[in-house]
Amino acid sequence: MAVQQAVVSHLPATSVTPKTVQYRLGRFVLYIILLGLSILFLIPVYMVLVTSFKSLDQVSISTMWDFPSRFTWESIRKAADQLAPSFFNSVVLVLPATIISAIAGSLNGYVFAKWRFRGANLLFTLILFGMFIPYQAVLIPLVKFLQWADLYGSLNGLILTHIVYGLPITTLIFRNYYAKIPTELVEAGLLDGGGFFSLYLYVILPLSVPAFVVVIIWQFTQIWNEFLFGVTITSVDSRPMTVALQNLSGSQIVEWNVQMAGAFLTALPTLLVYIILGRYFIRGLLAGSVKG
Amino acid sequence: MWGTLSKPQTKIVTSSARGRWAVRFRKLSNYLFVLPMMIYLSATMAYPIYVNLDMSLHDLNVRTFRSGDAPYIKFDNYKKLINDPGFRHAAGRSLTFTTISLGFQFLIGFSLALFFNRPFPLNGLLRALLLLAWLMPAVVGGTLFRWMADGDYGVFNYFLQSIGLGRYKDYWLLNPDTALAGTIIANVWVGAPFHMILLYAGLQNIPTTLYEAASIDGAGAIQRFIRITLPMMRPVMLGVLLLGFIYTFKVFELIFVMTGGGPVDATTVLPIHIYRLTFAFFRFGEGAASAIMLLLGLLLLAIGYAQLIHAEEAA
Q: Does ipTM come in above 0.90?
């Protein structure tokens, strides 16, 4: 293989014809275009950041690209004042919902990967279809159920909902992860007299840390970002941050600087998680979609 | 990466003399362990869908919803919907929104994936930055594009003005002719990085030796792309397209935040229409029926997707 590579890397050097020059030029132009495209994609992110640190009088069409002439926390503070209660709601929502859906998904994955039973594949497929349910199809029954359980309009209702609809993806990730743990380990544990839960606790769980990291990050960002459940089954006092952002409004004119500051603040927790633990995030993304 | 739907490990077997009883007991106990989960899942996932299905077969409106004596009307809600211009309009909008979005997302995503498949300085950083668009809350993306398409302060207008086309300035999201295009652009911005990441992972899995061998045999870049990249990427591309179709068809929040379905229904895609039928017009029966239709359509695609992955794993 090393030889092959050596041969390949020598090929262009030995044959610089006008054709290869033309080819390289085309390549170069193509890369410039694609580089431009990627930068184009980043412009909106730049705009949010820049505008968040401007005051309203600096937000004009002629200076929108510019760095703030006067760097100010005014917009951020204004948005933060309005969003603070819902920020705490989102924190109270996202922590238990993430942790419980991760633990439940881990138990599910354990059963599906190591305790085979008749109909397991069918049941597993059905759970996976849960990922594709348009939530509109369950909203009214959900509202009715939460009313019946006296959870409608409360954060607990929203937490419960997120746990349930987080299960398909968490189950999927854990099951695929556990499928790779040698079954001999479980068998050995069985021979030593371990049962369902002791095997989970002493054999499976200690090996699960990487999967937990992926699942927790994934669930955290998904639940933090979610809007439809948030807007439907909460009241003003319990609404999450994404819903509050949508309702963030100034007086007569739209204060875009405050809007952008609010958008920035709402996205910030997700962004921080991604910046710190990005590669685990991408692993979750791939695990939940296409065989990578 | 971990395979989706990978084949399960072999069963736990014991073959000692007492083993058979133990196995039988264990089989029984397996069900006991699984039983709570099944009850839980059917209660939380299957039951709401069943209730929704039931609602779709009743004449549910504001009055009967309260009183609880809605008459059973079989498939009348479905029939009504199929002949309802509003529903048809929404279905059409959804198809337009989804196919155009998906087309651009895929093309841009694939181009970027090919681009990033080459090593160059800051490759990883740029790739990571691009994913920001996808992982922001949809509400943030929506707010952002609402501003960019704004008539007085928007970037689009600024851009037009700066290239001397100021007379074409518009309130893009308030104009029924351009609002859908605005939401599509926003959605492409959100979705293309997602396609890029999945396709990039696929590209990374193609053995480089294939390309090396082809180069030695004298294949050019275009030939290598057509003869190696495309065939090797076929399953991934199909998967991404199917998944992308399902996800794009479900897009709600982005449009809800940008236009709320307006102006004059110009951006009322099916998920928005269902939401409005139920929560704005209180036509609960029809809302439920249209949700069931959406669900069935997407499930068919999801089954196709599951089949695809199974086939790929069998290969």
A: no
